[in-house]
Amino acid sequence: MLYKRSSELFVEANKVIPGGVNSPVRAFKGVGGTPIFVKEAKGAYLYDEDGNRLIDYINSWGPMILGHAYEPVVNAVVEKAKKGTSFGMPTALETEIAQLAVSMVPNIDKIRFVNSGTEACMSAIRLARGYTKRDKIIKFSGCYHGHSDSFLIAAGSGLSTFGMPNSPGVTEGTAKDTLLASYNDIENVKALFEANKNQIAAIIVEPVAGNMGCIPPAKGFLEALRSVCSENGTLLIFDEVMTGFRLAKGGVQELYGIQADIVCFGKVIGGGLPVGAFAAREEIMNHLAPLGPIYQAGTLSGNPLAMAAGYEMLKALNTDPGIFSRLEEKTAYLESGIQKVLTDANVVFTINRVGSMISVHFDANPVYDFTTAKSGDNETFKKFFHGLLKRGIYIAPSAYETWFITDALTYEDLDFTIAAIQETAKEL
Ligand SMILES: *Cc1c(COP(=O)(O)O)cnc(C)c1O
User: Fold this and answer.
1) Which of 59, 209, 229, 285 could make an S-S bridge to 64, C-beta 3.0–4.6 Å?
2) Closest Cα to atom 11 of ligand 1
3) What is the pLDDT of residues 277-298, one digit of tens each?
4) CA 276 to ligand 1: nearest atom
5) What's the confidence (pLDDT) of residue 357?
6) Which parts of the sequence carry N6-(pyridoxal phosphate)lysine (predicted)?
7) Do 233 and 185 belong together in one domain?
8) Out of 29, 80, 249, 267, which one is annotated catalytic?
9) Are residues 90 and 225 part of one domain?
10) Are residues 140 and 261 in the same domain?
11) Is this structure's pTM higher than 0.70?
12) Torsion angle (degrees, nearest 10) of CA 323, 324, 326, 329
């Protein structure tokens, strides 16, 4: 495959955009080489500026769960655009998508829409602090909750790729209110509660972690977080930006039957447009302005194009629950195919998977937290990435990312992918 045009475009981009990209992980720093510039995409495929076709396992980092340029979404956005793209006034569609989301997700009465997952998590934390009148939060190493200040402390993927455990520009004052715990380590969490009595507003967690590869919660871990929060008057925030509307219609709350106090959404909920949302029981949500004193706002929040895209996406997921079992079956098929060809090739690896989130770690040991996620062999990952890329398979350009399976993938695509992995394994 040739990347001539992509290389030229990257040179031009670097002159006017820092690092040539508008989000760091796109820059291929973790794997080397030139980022691929996309021209268009349809279904399971990306078409780049050099005319290459790639089978896409990233799907815009999750949103395109039904494939690229999914027609009902595209049509709804086109029709809406003709009628005006933003008003800064309420529209009926905002209520419709809110009603639909509330009907799909357990334990929420009200939802507010924002423009990104970052905004959703940032707002959820403010709500939790305002509601509990406490300052501190607990987050887990390797979990990513967007790039707002409170969360840029051991924040997984993008940051791990660049070896920046913290970011300059985050003040010590902010950092001191973020307490760090290890994923899947409940004793660690209990010790933090012991040392910070009546000070912890919230625990924020990716209930299935996806930003250090895919890491499932250990048996009993989420239940234990729920209990410790309830015992201490602390709110449990599920950051379902990645898992929401992907692992089940109602997300991880439904999948594992655990009740969160606040839930954050992004990615799938926008159908590929910039949308995030946070939701909770009425009693909590009513503390938000204009009903309550906790301020949160957005000029483009609830934007008609974004809401049209999100509504069509949620409607599709709501009316065909078979989507989730198809995704499970396709991803399980891919998993067992990869297991077989990598084992046959004597490659040292571990695969983690929950539903349509899957990651391959080049490590013999179980991967269950940030420390074990980081111990994988990065050099092998780079070869794996480039081996797949030259065979027309696009996975995330970082060893710390999950693959997102789309319903647009056929079994033929999966077989093609497994064969490409078999070939690539010979080069590792
Ligand atoms: C992607 C992601 C975010 C941030 O969402 P953006 O839309 O990129 O701001 C937050 N939390 C999790 C779990 C994510 O995967």
Assistant:
1) 59
2) 145
3) 999 999 999 999 999 999 999 9
4) 7
5) 98
6) 267
7) yes
8) 267
9) yes
10) yes
11) yes
12) 170
